[in-house]
Write a structure and sequence with these properties.
Blueprint lengths: L8 H4 L4 H13 L6 E5 L5 H10 L8 E5 L5 H9 E2 L11 E2 L1 H4 L4 E5 L6 H13 L1 E2 L8 E2 L3 E6 L3 H6 L5 H7 L2 E5 L7 H18 L5 E2 L1 H9 L5 H16 L4 E2 L7 H4 L15 H23 L4 H8 L3 H10 L9
Parallel strand pairs: 1-8, 1-9, 2-5, 5-8, 10-11
Antiparallel strand pairs: 3-4, 6-7
Helix pairs in contact: 9-11, 13-14, 14-15
């Protein structure tokens, strides 16, 4: 399997202390076959980090298999993971090797692990505990040697406390936990990452590398990047296309939302005047609107996840979005 592009040690020396700390941790973890739990917001690069662990470790010659636990039904996910024998269910016209068996000797990356249903969580716990499982409909015991890396953009400990995630599996996965800070908390990395993406895309397309103007760099650095590195990479690629034959990428080649979408500063004049009760109502309104806007930025407009962050129902969030006239092209 072809290795993904990686930063060189020299390139990492220029990044923020927070990001360098993450890389130092995973590079220490990589040689050891222990489970890893990677935490981070949407688009922070959890799979990228998992691949780095795999390719820097002793299993690099074997497969790295990534599985999104939120993208399919429980039955389909189980059949993909475990495989099945012919005739075990309608449509099973032949034996199928599961992803766990394919990954024997390699690494399995389970993204969005919090979305895995309890029944499958139990089976996964048993597999990780003794390294054996049965295919769906099968009686033969299959042994596998895999390294497991799981990732989540939610707080698994909260799921455990609510009974939505097995406690024993949580502690088995949480042997080594790595948290990736969002881009807005390490703004010094934004331009370094943007420049790296420019270089990678130019190399891929066989073209001369473009650069950003100072004005464009200022816009990139000021934006909060709610979808983090994934959003930045997408923006860099789009800006290259819009720049056309120009070697300099200017603000006109960037999405307008990057300039407009800024945090609303608190304005004391907006609440002055009227009774104390009225001023209090206005202040609460401003704080609520800012909190909702920030939660939507963090979740790339995902109302369900934003409601979870704010500890309110999705219905209440939708009502407040309408009341405060919060507009975003990314709401969903």
């Amino acid at each position: 399997m072809k290795k993904q592009s990686q930063f060189s040690p020299h390139e990492f020396s220029h990044f923020s202390p927070a990001f360098k700390n993450v890389i130092e941790i995973v590079d220490k973890i990589a040689p050891h076959n222990i489970p890893v739990l990677i935490e981070g917001e949407i688009g922070t690069g959890k799979e990228w980090l998992a691949r780095r662990i795999h390719f820097a470790g002793p299993r690099t010659a074997r497969e790295f298999i990534a599985i999104d636990c939120s993208s399919s039904s429980d039955v389909f996910l189980e059949s993909e993971l475990l495989g099945y024998v012919r005739g075990s269910f309608a449509g099973a016209i032949h034996d199928k090797k599961g992803l766990l068996e394919r990954a024997d000797g390699g690494t399995v990356f389970l993204d969005h692990i919090s979305k895995m249903k309890p029944t499958l969580q139990g089976k996964l716990f048993r597999i990780l505990s003794d390294g054996t499982f049965h295919k769906i409909g099968g009686v033969a015991q299959i042994e596998v040697d895999i390294r497991l890396i799981a990732a989540t953009d939610e707080d698994l400990s909260t799921f455990v406390s609510k009974g939505k995630f097995r406690e024993d599996l949580y502690y088995l996965l949480n042997v080594m936990r790595v948290t990736i800070p969002p881009l807005r908390e390490r703004r010094e990395d934004i331009l370094l990452l943007a420049d790296w993406f420019l270089a990678q895309i130019a190399k891929r397309d066989g073209e001369e590398k473009k650069t950003f103007t100072k004005e464009a760099e200022s816009i990139l650095k000021a934006y909060d990047w709610p979808a983090n590195v994934r959003e930045l990479e997408s923006e860099v690629e789009k800006s290259i296309i819009l720049a056309g034959s120009n070697q300099k990428i200017s603000p006109s080649h960037l999405a307008p939302i990057l300039s407009k979408r800024k945090r609303v500063p608190f304005n004391s004049k907006a609440i002055s005047g009227g009774s104390l009760k009225e001023q209090k109502r206005k202040m609460v309104g401003i704080l609520e609107k800012n909190a909702i806007t920030e939660a939507l930025r963090k979740t790339a407009g995902n109302r369900t996840k934003a409601a979870q962050i704010l500890a309110i129902s999705r219905q209440e969030l939708i009502r407040k979005i309408s009341a405060y006239k919060i507009k975003s092209r990314t709401l969903k």
